[in-house]
Amino acid sequence: NQNSRPDIQVNVPPEVFSTRGQSSQPCIQCCVYQDQNYSEGAVIKVEGVLLQCQRDEKTISTNPLVWRRVKP
């Protein structure tokens, strides 16, 4: 009796790995700005204002991350 593993091959189109010219896939735990996904802790500068992607402790949802203003 042999322990054999099935030979599984999954063909993934190259578009999955490239977001060029396409909007990003929806992200469950991300902040979104201009169709870009940012993970928790990310900091961006918008019109001279620093924003950080942080957890929203007041919200219970599938996407608890929000942009918050941070002081430089």
Radius of gyration: 19 Å
Return the structural class.
mainly beta
- Number of domain units: 1
The number of strands is: 5
DSSP helix fraction:
under 10%
N-C termini distance: 66 Å
Q: How would you characterize the largest beta sheet?
A: 3 strands, antiparallel
Unreliable residue stretches = none
Mean pLDDT: 75
The helix tally amounts to: 0
What is the element string, with H for helices and E for strands? EEEEE
Strand order of the largest sheet: 3-4-5
- Which band does the percent of strand residues land in? 25-35%
Silhouette = elongated
Pfam families: DUF1496 (PF07383)
Region (Disordered): 1-22
InterPro entries: DUF1496
Organism: Salmonella enterica
3D structure, described in words:
The chain is mainly beta. It has one domain (14-70). It contains no helices and five strands. The chain has strands spanning 31-33, 36-38, 43-46, 49-55, 65-70. Strand 3 (43-46) and strand 4 (49-55) form a beta hairpin. It starts with 30 loop residues before the first strand and ends with a strand.
Features:
single chain; about 70 residues; three-stranded antiparallel sheet; about 30% strand; YnjH family protein; DUF1496
